Amino acid sequence: MTGRFARLSLRWRLMALGLAGVTGALLVGGLLLYAAMSETLERGTVTAARASASDVAALVNDGRLPAPVPVGGALVVQVLDPQNRVTGGSVTADRLTSLVSPQERRELAEGQSLTVPGARAGVDGSLRVVGVEAGPASARVLVVAGVPTADLETSRRLLRSLLIVLLPLFLLVLALIAWRVIGMALAPVEQLRRGAARIGREEDPTERLPVLPARDEISALAQTLNEMLERLWSADAKQRAFVADAAHELRSPLATMRTQLEVAQRMGQGEGLPAELLPEVRRLAAIVEDLLELARSETGQRGAAREVDLVQLAGRVVRRYGDARVPVRLEARPCEGNRLSPETEAITVLAAEVDLDRALANLLDNAVRHARTEVLVSVAKRSSGPVLAVRDDGHGIPAQEVERVFDRFARLGEARDRDSGGSGLGLPITRELLRRNGAHIRLEDARPGVVAVVEFETAERRLSQ
Fold it and tell me: Which of 154, 171, 205 is the last residue of a domain?
């Protein structure tokens, strides 16, 4: 039960706890009200019967007891002698049979009140009976007055019915009000959640959580979180600036070192040292370029977005790999809905062409390094949007590692190590370039090899945003 309750939303948990507390309080209050009302009605009935018996006793003491005894309503009155015989009574009472037994008569004489069957007086239900002694000491009699309890039971049933009917209705109304009030109280929290969901997805790095004008705990929380985001953004900006500055400063000395090594190699100087160092310098220069590109991509610096034909873009990039280690082929497959068709047509996306060019080149560089026989680039148009895929038939990637390869400088296994030529930054750069152009990438097992699937939003959707 605890596990199910813990899985409920905060709104439902507050509702459940609040209604449980209110229901418990109302049940206790309703029971106490019913008991108090029953006691009040019971006491009123006994008081009315005792008042009538006292009035009749006063007539007996004055020697003015008429026959029959005058009473009002359904009141039953009998005057009993010490032998419990009826010596007088009202028109509603039996003139021959006593309303109470000798034992009950003694209890009434002691001031108690009793409930006796109404059949003794020919009425339905029960009678609430009291007794008052009267007359001289030598001839004491007991005036017995009984009041039917039908009205009392009717009042009790009405009270029970009202409690049974009104309590659920009251709880229902209270639940509706509580649901609305809790929703209004949690609305600022929902605004914070939506704001937090937008941060990181949007291109504006300075966007912050909404701060409500109310000076309450939620507003203070939003301000504190915004201050934390400002500190994180400032630290991240400094880190990106440092990487960009360092990469930029390293370009010139690396270019100089590369030039000197190439000259030394052509001049035959340094024996085999230039030939050994040139690949490492080139790789270091590539890493510096990748770092600079990564820093630029994370700062949101990009070209103007426009409609780009993925088929033409892919064909242009594929043609640059005519001399690659393995063949690189392009397959364009537009479709209606999810059903592919062989016709070739424009498949456009709204993006920065330079970003897509670099992203696709990174994917092809990675695929060519690890492919065994060929690399296949495919472009398709599905109902959800355009799809670009790059497939190699290499070693593949374990399922548990498909996300880790997007980490910076990540390398997996002997087939994807430093000697294979990768810097470990190609996929992180690719993901960032695609992300800021409304696309996302995932890696799938191609058996053999790996297929990188890039899914784009439609140009119409991008324009609407």
Answer: 154
Phi, then psi, of 140 in degrees rounded to 5 = -70, 135
Q: Which distant-in-sequence residues (6+ apart) come within 8 Å of 153 by Cβ? A: 125
Range of the domain at 69: 15-154
Report which residue type is found at 369: R
Answer yes or no: pTM beyond 0.85: no
Residue 135 lies in a domain: yes
Q: Which helix (H) or strand (E) holds 333?
A: strand 328-333
State whether 325 and 445 are in the same domain: yes
Taking CA atoms, 324 is separated from 318, 327, 386, 415, 446, in Å, by: 10, 7, 27, 18, 21
Cβ atoms 452, 389 nearer than 8 A: yes
pLDDT tens digits, one per residue of 66-118: 888 888 778 889 898 888 898 888 888 888 888 899 998 899 888 888 888 88
pLDDT digits (tens, 9 = 90+) for 119-161: 888 888 888 899 999 988 888 899 999 888 887 888 888 888 8
DSSP reduced 3-state for 207: coil
**Interhelix angle for 273-298 vs 217-267, to 10°?**
160
In a domain, 198, yes or no: no
Half-sphere exposure of 52 (CA within 13 A, CB side): 25
